[in-house]
Amino acid sequence: MARRTTGVLSSRDMLRTLYGDFMRTFSNVLFAVLLLLVWGLMTLVGVVVEQGKDPSVYFQSYAAPLARLILRLNFDNIYHAPYYVGIIGLILISLAACTFKRVIPARLPPLRPVNIGKIPLNATVSVRGTEASVRARVEEFFTKRGWQVRKREFGGTEWTFADKHNWARRGVLVAHVGFVIIAAGTTLYWARGFSGDTAIVAGQTVEIPQTHATIKLDRFRYVVEPIMTKTGMVYQPIDYVSHVTVVGKSGVPKNEIIRVNHPINIDGTLYYQASYGFALRLNVTHDGKSVESLSNRLYATGEAFQIPGTQRTVQFSQFVPTIDKQTGQPSSDPRVNDPGAVLSVFDGGRPAGAALVPMRTTVAIGGGWSVEPEGYRMVTGIQYRYDPGAVLVGIGAFVLLAGLVISFYLLPARLYVRVDPGSASGGEPSRWDVGLAATTVKGYDIFETQFGELVAEFQRWLDPSTGPKASIPAPEV
Amino acid sequence: MANYMPLDEVLMVIALASYVVGALALLGYFFTHEAWLKHLGIPLAIAGCAAQFAQLVARYELTHIWPLLNLYGSLSLFAAMSVLLFLIFAFRYKLWFAGGFVLALAALFLAYGVTWNEGVMPAVPSLQSYWAKIHVPLVVSSYSAFMLAFVLSALYLVKFYFERRLATPGGAATPAAVPGGAAVGIRNDTPHIAAAAAQGDGTAQWLNTLPSLAQMDVLIYRVVAVGLPLLTLGVITGAMWAHEAWGAYWQWDPKETAALVSWIVYAIYMHLHTRNQWRGLRSAWVSVIGFISIMFCYFGVNLWISGLHSYKM
């Protein structure tokens, strides 16, 4: 029994030691800095290495060993890699440990006497008067300037403690709470939110799978302006507009307009203008006869069809809004003037040829088959997102900002004041030395100039005819 | 329409000339301590800054296009804000010693910005938002604050390493030779520079006119404390804009993530600054690294890496 108890105790001790070590490590500021550094470096990798591309892109862009390393270490999708999410998790744990172990317990320092001469920011002001009157003037000086004054007696000596901006000691806590709120908002999106995108051809209706809302694209319009710049003609996009009819939970169709920067809200889900494109109608003929199964439909960019009875496929590779009449090549003008389509032919999966075919022009592809781009329709790309955590993230961001502002712009400081009989008074009973020392949460250097000004003002207030033994003026540069 | 370009260019030339001459004057003041050079440099800095803001206002009034939507406009604001922040800090904390360097950098960035002037371009759809009037000035102002912090950090490091060089055995001077001790600030943290200055060493004399290392560290902290909340607010407003334009407040776009990297670097700076032993040299290096990350975020991502923020024109 005794042996068992000892065993339980030692396990508890071990757990306690482990917990203590864990808290010490995770609440250490330098450990937090290390985590931030690792996070920063990982994020930098994500900036430099293009994200979410096909593996072949990395082999084209980098030497083969480097490309393999990128893919093996998940650098191609680093922001969703387990180690990236893990480091953010560790930062949040460190933030929580630091908050509970350092920030919350860091209340006002206890009112205790100090050795004034050993604090770097110190001064002594010699003043005439009775002890009571000097003490009263000291208190009045600080109270009038917004300092919170408290008095305590230690070993028969009365100390005056003056504090300013004490509440600002909570700035770091506020900033950390902001982070936690942001993390909560993000988690809420992961748990309950969704997003997706859909392409809608003019005249078609799509249903959003998560909400069952329907969107019909009535018309899509884009505006491009040709602008002559110093380096040549630039076709500047000005507007992308989707005219849609939406049906939400109410079942009532509504006409809406979706533009960039102007999403629409259907039952809490936002719908955004994301992209646009063209769908192509082809007339596929064999021995001069139209093949209905291949012709009576619209092809999206990149879509292909197989020529019946062969290994050949024809792909609609690209829509060209304007073909340059002089060169016969695609023009940089994105407006539809003389449109065409790039059609690519593959034989057994291998490229067999490609051609830019003007609209309503027939091109023979062998074996009695021919293809004619017959017409086109506009396609709009709509992105949708339901994010129940967005408000929380916004609130968290502003709480974080408030915490930063409080921490950076307010300086919690404490003054220690002690009144002693004058040491250099030659036995004069009415002379007193008022000793001052200052500490702040950000060290001494940051308060140096203010302390010098405060001491000078304090001296003038107590006795204009005497000067402080040590004031620290700011150097004139 | 034909008249605004000359006015725009005239104001830009005035600003550029003011910065160049002002930089020379304030650099001269730094090296010689001739008061008239300072009195020449300050009005030129103010004139250049005023000309730049006038140029931005004039461009907006005449074209009705927000002028900060391309590299030309944003670099113009960057230079103007850098000089404005410098002037505010200089009047408050007597930073005139840094003026020559700040103005020289402002002139450099402005001159580079002018090379990106393609004339009047309407905004692309994603930039047609009221957020452009909030997000861009906030972010660019934060860059300006970090530029000022960088200049101060660089000067801090020069002074620190010069002191260390003098302090090594065989150094030029010993503190015992300093007449009267000449301590500045809470502690005389560069006694060898003070001693060498007293012995007539030219470099030491320049560096001796700078505030103490401890005071410079506080100055860098104060400037970063302006930049970091601005960058935070810039990232927040950028996220709100992205939520409105692209459907997500965070898309891991290279520009967003590069800004996040800079934010992390300055967060590291602020965390290190809470520790006594990490203030000074180490935090000054972090500030320098922070500015390099800002430059990468500003130019590297805009010019070399394509993404949602690729608005070079």
Q: Roughly what is the average pLDDT of chain A, rounded to an integer?
A: 87
- How big a fraction of the residues of chain B is strand? under 5%
Unreliable spans of chain B = 176-185
Number of strands of chain B: 0
- What is the N-to-C succession of helices and strands of chain B? HHHHHHHHHH
Name the shape of chain A in a single word. Answer: elongated
- The percent range for helix content of chain A is 25-40%
Strand coverage percent of chain A:
35-45%
Q: How many E strands of chain A?
A: 20
Oligomer classification: heterodimer
What secondary-structure arrangement, pairings included, does this model have?
The complex is a heterodimer of chains A (477) and B (313).
Chain A: H1 2-26, H2 29-48, H3 55-61, H4 64-72, H5 82-103, E1 122-128, H6 131-144, E2 148-154, E3 157-164, H7 171-192, E4 194-201, E5 205-207, E6 214-229, E7 232-247, E8 253-259, E9 264-266, E10 269-286, E11 289-290, H8 292-295, E12 298-299, E13 304-306, E14 312-320, E15 340-347, E16 350-358, E17 363-366, E18 369-386, H9 390-409, E19 413-421, E20 431-440, H10 448-462
Antiparallel strand pairs in A: 1-20, 2-3, 3-19, 4-18, 5-6, 6-7, 7-8, 9-10, 10-11, 10-12, 10-18, 13-14, 14-15, 15-16, 17-18, 19-20
Chain B: H1 4-32, H2 35-63, H3 71-93, H4 99-114, H5 132-167, H6 191-198, H7 202-208, H8 213-245, H9 254-272, H10 281-304
